[in-house]
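[Meeting: bench + compute handoff]

Bench side (C.D.) handed over the final construct sequence. Compute side (W.E.) agreed to return the predicted structure before the next meeting so the bench team could plan truncations. Sequence as handed over:
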Amino acid sequence: MSIPYRLPEEFETARYFLRRVKVDDAQAIFDSYATDAEVTRFLGWKPHRSLADTSAFLEIAAAEWDLGSGFPVVARDRESGNFLGMFHPKLVGHMVNYGYVLRRSAWGQGWATEVMRWLVEQALTQPMICRTEAFCDVDHPASARVMEKAGMEREGILRRYFRHPNISEAPRDCVIYSKVQ
């Protein structure tokens, strides 16, 4: 069976180099954001307590490539080589859903917008993909701005949609954004 969408294993944007995630990335991820409570505040997992936590996550994420269900990539600054974060496109039928995280020192510099714009446009060039989407907590305006600047449009609020365990055990309202063709 052929997979209708596949992200290149390596690619570049104007300022960043991205490549398929590897289990060997565990130390860089652990050191840069996986233990940071502020960075993980709006994510679906609690800060990692050990390198083993990060490695276990990366084993699952890296295996998604072989299954064709997800294409997580790590990003580095092309000039400095500094590790910045991770994007996680997931294939869901005729659409691609995105999640992303970046180290705190990279916030507010436009890198998430640049990479997200590239990912969305690349996905929509694929004949079988007609929708790209991402969501964020209603109290996370910085993430909402990234999606808007990447060309996605706000569709509405998903009530009690996603559990952010660093905020509440109860599912929280989220804003959904998309770009379609």
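W.E. noted at the follow-up: Strands lie at 10-12, 16-20, 73-77, 83-87, 90-92, 95-98, 100-102, 131-137, 153-162, 172-180. C.D. will use this when planning the next construct.
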